[in-house]
UniProtKB/TrEMBL annotation, chain A:
<dbReference type="InterPro" id="IPR008710">
    <property type="entry name" value="Nicastrin"/>
</dbReference>
<keyword id="KW-0914">Notch signaling pathway</keyword>
<dbReference type="Pfam" id="PF05450">
    <property type="entry name" value="Nicastrin"/>
</dbReference>
<dbReference type="GO" id="GO:0007219">
    <property type="term" value="P:Notch signaling pathway"/>
</dbReference>
<dbReference type="InterPro" id="IPR041084">
    <property type="entry name" value="Ncstrn_small"/>
</dbReference>
<comment type="similarity">
    <text>Belongs to the nicastrin family.</text>
</comment>
<dbReference type="GO" id="GO:0005886">
    <property type="term" value="C:plasma membrane"/>
</dbReference>
<dbReference type="GO" id="GO:0016485">
    <property type="term" value="P:protein processing"/>
</dbReference>
<keyword id="KW-0732">Signal</keyword>
From TrEMBL, chain B:
<feature type="transmembrane region" description="Helical">
    <location>
        <begin position="59"/>
        <end position="77"/>
    </location>
</feature>
<dbReference type="GO" id="GO:0007220">
    <property type="term" value="P:Notch receptor processing"/>
</dbReference>
<feature type="transmembrane region" description="Helical">
    <location>
        <begin position="18"/>
        <end position="38"/>
    </location>
</feature>
<keyword id="KW-0472">Membrane</keyword>
<dbReference type="GO" id="GO:0070765">
    <property type="term" value="C:gamma-secretase complex"/>
</dbReference>
<keyword id="KW-1133">Transmembrane helix</keyword>
<comment type="similarity">
    <text>Belongs to the PEN-2 family.</text>
</comment>
<keyword id="KW-0812">Transmembrane</keyword>
<protein>
    <recommendedName>
        <fullName>Gamma-secretase subunit PEN-2</fullName>
    </recommendedName>
</protein>
């Protein structure tokens, strides 16, 4: 069906009908004007901070419905395959097949042969995570050739610190007080592996990267009192996989710092649709009932507001915190923190976690006479807006970490960098890869998708790698180590594998195609983002995310013409008749063989 | 093996072996007993060992019917309720089909 029909009412009707065997939706570039969000209206309501024990009047979105356009389609159970098709030549073939054979002519039903489509998408897992993980475990213990049914969603969080910390010693670090700047790294939509997530995710990634770039030189020159962490959490769309894992690791001394080391947290929520209006600072009213926390949060708000001449507002004092990674920190400890967003109450994003949340939605338009390379560098309004927020974030973090006011004006985000990142993360990452990629990854020419996916053999998702290497490039230093030393810097004096991570980068490609690789030392690390429920093997956990993805057999589809049942029966009938006739004929011939073949035989040796 | 060519005592001992073997949870031996010795027990003209062979065949048939009843009941119940039994059913299953509850 065409994209316009892809609404909740149509899909629910199809789900309840017994005559639908599959659906193929033809994608369109822009969504319906009234908005479309297949996510729930209250995202992550069971794994956030508001429960019956903590802020019951704010739990389950009693106070504010964050995603009012959410129709919950992504959370429905469909018994048939649903495919999405790009609107190109092959889709035109499908349309033509329908028009030629299946359309009603003059009010009468279409005649055979009819056009049919067969969708193959056999999934191994059923019922729920508990069942499929139990069956996978049974297969692993008792079968010679184990058949996996499902795998937990996992990837890696990216984090870096301004002052490097000894990564081999986990747990509480003495005299270390850390301000965390956080953003999310993932998105989703109704369809598998489609998640352009421009407003939901890309704007916050780009802003935080630009803020890190703006802050680093000043922080190195005039180090602030506290340490600063930049973290990108993966898997937040699926009940906060990355942030719940990091908090769990912090609680159990498996992370480089501990929750006692965390001073405050600033999170960048959805900020792409600001359009020159004010930015909103959300905080948690329940933790602010405590006077110490309230004082700290108020101070934080003041330092953010005074960093830059940007219109900032606070929503009403009793409003809940929007769904954000910060909620997982609050579940464990009343950390003072803020979430920056472009919405006061409900999201301004009309396509939250849907396939229509693309760069076009953010009004990223270029004058038509630009080539793709020029488009990468054209400074759009959206990019300029994000640059302002990046400067704000960098300055407020610096101030919150105890940096001195006189250095604040040196911290400014660069619009050119923001533009480059924005185009790269939204539209294509081709150009970026030539400069700062790991040697083994390949350049992609389609927009990057932000669905978390699985890590079957511990590889890292390409977007996570991009963020990791971009951060390393911006905040690290080039060293003179050669390749073997870079991979194992234990014996090189002055280098420490505990404090830093070393990557061998291929460098920019010169005119004659050669590269000049070098070793980059940075304090950018990856931390595993796998839900603690799988570490604890509590597959039915209510505390942590238990999302898994099923394994499948080959996914394909085909169209063909189907003959009428009468023709098929006739073919079968003719075949059976031929069989019977041949049996009868053979019987007769064999019983009368002497009569039929009794012609005089010539002796074999009559050739003389 | 052609039963025509064996002396009657050996027929009796063969029938007994199959009858006794079926008690080791091998109902197919009883099925074989019934099918193979049916003609010998009920159709052929009487001979000395025939009454005993007849008893063995009758008892094998009885045991076979019992097994068929028990297995049919258990298989129907299991196939119908496997999905609802959840964990217990998974632990007593040898192969679990993929993609269905």
């Amino acid at each position: 069906m065409e994209a316009a029909f892809f609404t909740r009412s149509t899909m629910v009707k199809m789900k309840n009908s017994s005559r639908v065997a599959g659906v193929a939706v033809i994608k369109s570039n822009t969504g319906p004007t009234e908005g479309f969000s297949p996510h729930t209206s209250c995202p992550n309501q069971n794994t956030g901070v508001y429960t019956e024990h903590y802020g019951p009047e704010l739990a389950n979105c009693n106070n504010t419905v964050w995603n009012p356009l959410g129709n919950g389609l992504s959370y429905e159970d469909f018994a048939f395959p649903i495919f999405s098709l790009k609107d190109d030549n092959q889709t035109q073939v499908i349309r033509k097949c329908y028009e030629d054979h299946n359309m009603r002519m003059n009010g009468s039903a279409p005649q055979y042969p009819l056009c049919a489509m067969q969708l193959f998408s056999h999934m191994h897992a059923v019922t729920d995570t508990v069942t499929c993980m139990r069956r996978t475990d049974l297969q692993n213990s008792f079968s010679i050739n184990p058949e996996k049914l499902c795998d937990p969603l996992s990837d890696f969080n990216v984090w870096t610190s301004i002052r490097p910390l000894n990564n081999s010693i986990k747990g509480h670090k003495e005299n270390e007080s850390v301000v965390i700047a956080a953003a999310r790294l993932d998105g989703r939509s109704f369809f598998w592996d489609i998640a352009p997530s421009a407003e939901g995710t890309v704007s916050s990634i780009v802003t935080l990267l630009a803020a890190a770039q703006a802050l680093y030189p000043v922080a190195l020159e005039a180090p602030p009192q506290r340490n600063i962490f930049f973290t990108f959490f993966q898997g937040e769309a699926f009940d906060y996989i990355g942030s719940s894992r990091m908090v769990y690791d912090m609680e159990n001394s498996k992370f480089v710092i501990d929750l006692d080391n965390v001073h405050s947290l600033l999170e960048i929520g959805q900020i792409g649709l600001r359009n020159g209006q004010s930015l909103w600072m959300h905080s948690d009213p329940v933790s602010r009932k405590n006077t110490t926390v309230n004082k700290q949060v108020t101070l934080f708000i003041k330092s953010v507001a005074s960093s830059l001449n940007l219109s900032l507002n606070e929503p009403s004092a009793t409003q809940a915190l929007p769904p954000s990674s910060f909620q997982r920190f609050l579940r464990v400890r009343p950390v003072p923190g803020l979430v920056l967003a472009d919405h006061q109450a409900s999201f301004t994003n009309r396509y939250y976690e849907s396939l229509y949340d693309t760069a076009t939605y953010l009004n990223v338009t270029y004058p038509s006479d630009l080539s793709p390379e020029q488009q990468l560098e054209y400074e759009t309004e959206a990019a300029k807006s994000l640059t302002q927020v990046a400067t704000l974030v960098a300055r407020s973090i610096y101030k919150q970490a105890g940096g001195e006011d006189r250095f604040l004006n040196n911290i400014t985000a660069d619009t050119k960098t923001v533009t480059l990142f924005f185009s790269g993360f939204n539209i294509f990452v081709l150009k970026m890869c030539t400069n700062m990629c790991a040697p083994s990854s390949s350049a992609e020419s389609s927009p990057p998708q932000y669905y978390i996916g699985l890590r079957l053999d511990n590889t890292v998702k390409s977007v996570t790698r991009f963020v990791q290497f971009i951060l390393a490039n911006m905040t690290g230093t080039v060293t003179k180590l050669n390749q073997s030393q870079c991979q194992n810097p234990k014996d090189v004096p002055g280098e420490s594998k505990d404090l830093y991570s070393y990557s061998w980068v291929s460098g920019p490609v010169s005119v004659n195609g050669t590269t000049d690789p070098y070793c980059v030392r940075s304090s950018v690390h990856l931390s595993k983002a796998l839900s603690p429920a799988f570490e604890l093997t509590d597959y039915g956990s209510r505390e942590y995310s238990t999302w898994t993805e099923s394994r499948w057999k080959t996914i394909r589809a085909r169209i063909f013409l189907v003959a009428s049942p009468q023709l098929e029966m006739m073919t079968l009938g003719v075949g059976v008749a031929v069989l019977l006739v041949s049996l009868v004929v053979t019987y007769f011939i064999s019983s009368k063989a002497e009569l039929l073949f009794s012609a005089t035989r010539e002796p074999p040796n009559t050739t003389y | 093996m052609n039963l025509e060519r064996i002396p009657n005592e050996e027929k009796l001992s063969l029938c007994r072996k199959y009858y006794l073997g079926g008690f080791a949870f091998l109902p197919f031996l009883w099925l074989v007993n019934v099918v193979w010795f049916f003609k010998e027990a009920f159709v052929k003209p009487a001979y000395t060992e025939q009454p005993q062979i007849k008893t063995y065949v009758k008892r094998s048939a009885l045991g076979l019917l019992l097994w068929v009843a028990v297995l049919t009941t258990w298989i129907s119940i299991f196939q119908h309720f496997r999905a609802q039994w959840g964990e217990v059913a998974d632990y007593i299953s040898f192969t679990i089909p993929l993609g269905t509850p």
